[in-house]
């Protein structure tokens, strides 16, 4: 998932800004709004509520925002991405609020932070507020990219206090739990150097995500991960009662789940997570699911993957409608361009399958409240791209579909002063 920022020539950056200006007509970085008045998003049963009215989400992932905000020559692309998202009617962007150890780390070592990197995160939040975009901020990675739980385990091992060198000791080692709690406390109580608002008091933050794609294969029963989630969600809520909280699950069912047959394979029930059990914790406000048939199936053709995705999405909406009584957001979905049978038109079909099901759920006042595509980029940041990323306005069909979904959801919910972009876009 991405590399470590490369500085591009100023001329090249100017060209990319000019291209987007021409693409969007009235996009003027010099005359952006000073800021929109945002309210905290709340939950009522299986719905998000904003200013007393239902809220449905069409959004995207740009995990690279903090990393790209560290340098004056590159942070302009962050503004371009946020404004472009707003112009497509998107309302939520998911991004990393972590970088542990290694190159340009936010957390250099346990409890030691790089103020320059923290100020880059300040900038991301302030810019998002200016454009009326809310942020779903993820607090740690299960994967090794940007440090993740592997880095925490290394720190404990290097200090001679780690119980195990296994990556999964992140979930059961008391010293590592202490490291992570200190990190969470520092981030949630951070006072933004641009806005003067503590993160926990800033409604620009849509919600916190506890961990990206947690897996604890050390304990396939799921007990270890369940205990960790219960402890950490309780800790976060003790500090911040303003924001919603989700786990960051991929959506797999555990071995004892009656729905384990819905998993993409038997392997998915051995990862130590369980969608329903994990999500049924009191302090978890909404559920999260990821959709990557390319990773899960290597022998199926596109049409077969499409049918499975429909089943996968509907299954989790059913869980939340009937049992969990919580909103479900599909916080990552993507189709790889590395598939041997890949055609550009397949992405539109794949996206539409997911977005149509969410739209139907929203129309019925169901628990399917939104989705965030993985991932959108702007020109000039190829080092952060992967086989799922795209610049949306370079693919007219995706650009049109994205706007269409924003407007379909906007018509279901009552438009209000918080959604000026949608009012203009969908009128």
UniProtKB/TrEMBL annotation:
It holds the Pfam family GH5_mannosidase. It catalyses: Random hydrolysis of (1->4)-beta-D-mannosidic linkages in mannans, galactomannans and glucomannans. One of its GO terms (cellular component) is extracellular region. Its EC number is 3.2.1.78. Its main location: secreted. GO terms for biological process: polysaccharide catabolic process. This is mannan endo-1,4-beta-mannosidase. One of its GO terms (molecular function) is mannan endo-1,4-beta-mannosidase activity. The chain crosses the membrane at residues 6-24. Keywords: Glycosidase, Hydrolase, Membrane, Secreted, Transmembrane, Transmembrane helix. InterPro entries: GH, Glyco_hydro_5, MAN-like. Residues 39-376 form the Glycoside hydrolase family domain. It comes from Gossypium davidsonii (Davidson's cotton). Belongs to the glycosyl hydrolase 5 (cellulase A) family. The keyword Nucleotide-binding does not apply. It is found in: Secreted.
């Amino acid at each position: 998932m991405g590399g470590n920022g490369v500085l591009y020539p100023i001329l090249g950056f100017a060209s990319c800004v000019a291209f987007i200006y021409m693409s969007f007509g009235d996009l003027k970085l010099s005359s952006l709004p000073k800021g929109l008045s945002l309210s905290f998003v709340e939950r009522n049963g299986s719905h998000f509520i904003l200013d007393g009215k239902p809220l449905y989400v069409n959004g995207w992932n740009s995990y690279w925002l903090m990393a790209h905000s560290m340098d004056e020559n590159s942070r302009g692309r962050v503004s371009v991405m946020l404004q472009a998202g707003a112009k497509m009617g998107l309302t939520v962007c998911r991004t990393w609020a972590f970088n542990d150890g290694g190159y340009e780390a936010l957390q250099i070592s346990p409890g030691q932070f790089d103020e320059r990197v923290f100020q880059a995160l300040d900038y991301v939040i302030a810019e998002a507020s200016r454009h009326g975009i809310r942020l779903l901020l993820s607090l740690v990675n299960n994967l090794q990219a940007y440090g993740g739980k592997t880095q925490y385990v290394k720190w404990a091992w290097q200090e001679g206090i780690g119980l195990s060198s296994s990556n999964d000791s992140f979930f059961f080692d008391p010293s590592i739990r202490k490291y992570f709690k200190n990190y969470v406390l520092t981030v949630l109580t951070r006072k933004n150097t641009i806005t003067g608002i503590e993160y926990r008091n800033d409604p620009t933050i849509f919600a916190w995500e506890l961990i990206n794609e947690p897996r604890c294969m050390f304990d396939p029963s799921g007990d270890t991960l369940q205990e960790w989630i219960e402890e950490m969600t309780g800790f976060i809520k003790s500090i911040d009662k303003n924001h919603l909280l989700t786990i960051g699950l991929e959506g797999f069912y555990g071995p004892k789940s009656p729905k384990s047959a819905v998993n993409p394979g038997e392997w998915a029930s051995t990862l130590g997570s369980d969608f329903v059990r994990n999500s049924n914790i009191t302090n978890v406000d909404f559920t999260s699911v990821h959709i990557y048939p390319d990773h899960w199936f290597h022998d199926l053709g596109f049409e077969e993957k499409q049918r499975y995705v429909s089943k996968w999405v509907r299954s989790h909406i059913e869980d939340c409608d009937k049992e969990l009584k919580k909103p479900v957001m599909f916080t990552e979905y993507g189709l790889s361009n590395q598939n041997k049978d890949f055609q550009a038109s397949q992405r539109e079909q794949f996206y539409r399958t997911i977005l149509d099901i969410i739209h139907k759920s929203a129309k019925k006042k169901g628990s399917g409240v939104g989705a965030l595509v993985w991932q959108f980029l702007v020109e000039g940041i190829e080092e952060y791209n992967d086989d799922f990323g795209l610049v949306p306005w370079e693919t007219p069909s995706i650009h049109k579909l994205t706007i269409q979904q924003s407007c379909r959801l906007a018509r279901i919910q009552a438009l209000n002063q918080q959604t000026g972009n949608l009012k203009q876009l969908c009128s």
